[in-house]
Structure formats: structure tokens, C-alpha cells
Amino acid sequence: MNADIIGGLLSSAVRNAVSGKDTAVSFSGGVDSGLIAAMATEYTENVRLYTVGTEGAHDVLKAEEAAKLLDLEQEHILLTEDNIEGLLKEMIHISGTEDPLTLSFEIPTFCVTKFCSEHSIIGGIGADELFGGYHRYIGMPPSEFKDARNEDLKKLMSYVIPHEDKVADYFGKTIHRPFVDRDLVDAVLSLPCEEILPSDKRPRKAILKEIAESMNLNLLAETEKKAAQYGSGAMGLIRKSARKEKLTVGEYVKSFSDR
After folding, report:
1. Helix (H, G, I), strand (E, B) or coil at 141
2. Which pLDDT value is given to residue 48?
3. Which residues in the chain land under pLDDT 50?
């Protein structure tokens, strides 16, 4: 029953975001962006998937499979040793963000925002925080999970989303985030933590996987998702570039501001 209610609220949030608009989906092939993409097709005919990553990256391969399942057009935005430094410098210049971890996991959203032809963008941001998607949540006591999730949501709202909005404003785009829709967030936070908390018996984002299965999107429910910085290959490229200059990742990123 909870999955039905949550699925309905998520669908409404997607409808409010994309109805009648040409829409770009920041797409990794996982259950978060997959559900968003599938629901978007119910409210607009013009949905295109954009996947960011190195050649043969985990997210790129999974996204290709999922795009076929959804029967949607997909575009691969390639990350390489030749373009990663320029993308990082541009993102730092636009957003003012210099934290290496934030930069690495925001590379996909940045690239979609920069290169997509659509002005309206949606993605799965907020799903990990809201639905217990982080690996470190597994096995936490409920009270500890509640505090950790609240802290992660606070960081998302106060730091990550403002970063993305600066980028979107710069490129004249709008990023919509169905997973942080107020009605949806309130509904999920009202559920007992035990219904969200992942464990050895309950997978991460169990409710979202149940929604995907109810929509006959079992491939999405079964896909094992890596964090964006690893699934896209962005962190691997950043580390490789830093090693070439005999710097730590932090020193490498900071060096852009010093030049």
C-alpha cells in the first residue's frame, strides 16, 4: 500500500515538472532516474535520456540497457582524459564549489545541463537520501538512520541543490527534482524508519524497486547502482589526472583556483 501511495505522489511530482515540456533526463540506468524517465513519458512526448561517463563505464552500459527497455532516445556524453580538467574548471568557475567529492558526483548533472538541447531537466537527485540508498545506511539502528538521513537531506537542500541551480541559471536551464517534492518528502518521512532502513533482508530503496516492479520495469529494480562519481568514471579520471601532476585529488582541484 505504501508503495502505491509513494508511487502516486512521485508521478504527480513528475507531472508537475514536465507536463508539455521537452525534457532531458539525467540518466544513469538505475531505478531513480529510470522511474523518473518512465513516468515523464506519461506527461510529455518529448523525453530524451542523457548519460555521462567514460567509454564502457558502469552507468553507460546499464543506461544503454535501460534505454532500450524504456524505448527512449539516449545520448552519451563522453568523459575523457582530454576534457575532464576543462569541465572541472568550468564548474568551479560557475558554481564556486571546490569540494572534490561534490565536483566528482556533480559532473554528470553538470554535463547534462551544459550540453542538452532541452531547457527542462529532471533526474533522480534526492532518492538516495530519502529512500535509504547509501550503503552506509545498511544495518544502522533506526534512530541513527533517522538522524543520518535528516543530515543528508539538509546538506542536499542547503549545499548540493544551490550548486546545481547556479549551473542551471548560467546555462539558461531549469532542473526539476521530483524526489524532493514537498508532498513526497513529507509522506516518506512520516513512514516508520524500519520501512525504509536497508538491511541484509531489505534492499536499499526497496519502495522504489517495488514501484518499478509494479510498472513492469524489473530491470531497473534489479540494477545495482554505483555512486555517480564511480559509475560515470569521473572520479577515476580525476585521480588519474591528479597522479600525473603528482598531486592528491584535493591539491589537484585546489590548483585550478591558484593558477
Report:
1. coil
2. 97
3. none
Alpha-carbon distance values, 188 to 21, 37, 176, 192, 220 (Å): 27, 21, 19, 9, 21
Distance from C-alpha of 253 to C-alpha of 259, rounded to nearest angstrom: 11
The radius of gyration of the chain from alpha carbons, rounded to an integer in Å, stands at: 18
Q: What would you measure as the largest C-alpha separation in the chain, in angstroms?
A: 56
Residue 90 buriedness (CB in 10 A; 0-12 / 13-18 / 19+): middle
Domain boundaries, the chain: 2-258
Contact assessment for residue 124 and residue 32, using Cβ atoms and an 8 Å cutoff: yes
Residue with cell 536551464: 173
pLDDT tens digit string along 139-157?
A: 899 999 999 999 999 999 9
How far apart CA 189 and CA 126 sit, in angstroms, is 13
Cα(247)–Cα(241) distance, integer angstroms: 9
Write down the residue that cell numbers 561534490 correspond to: 102
Closest by Cα among 26, 6, 1 to 130: 6
Which residues have a Cβ under 8 Å from the Cβ of 144 and sit 6 or more positions away? none
Q: With contact defined as beta carbons under 8 Å apart, do 134 and 200 qualify?
A: no
- pLDDT (0 to 100) of residue 204: 92
Q: Which three cell numbers stand for residue 129?
A: 537520501
Return the pLDDT at 1.
Answer: 59
| C-alpha–C-alpha distance, residues 256 and 259, integer Å | 6
Superfamily of chain region 2-258: HUPs (3.40.50.620)
C-alpha cell read off for 132: 535509504
pLDDT score of 257: 65
pTM value > 0.90: yes
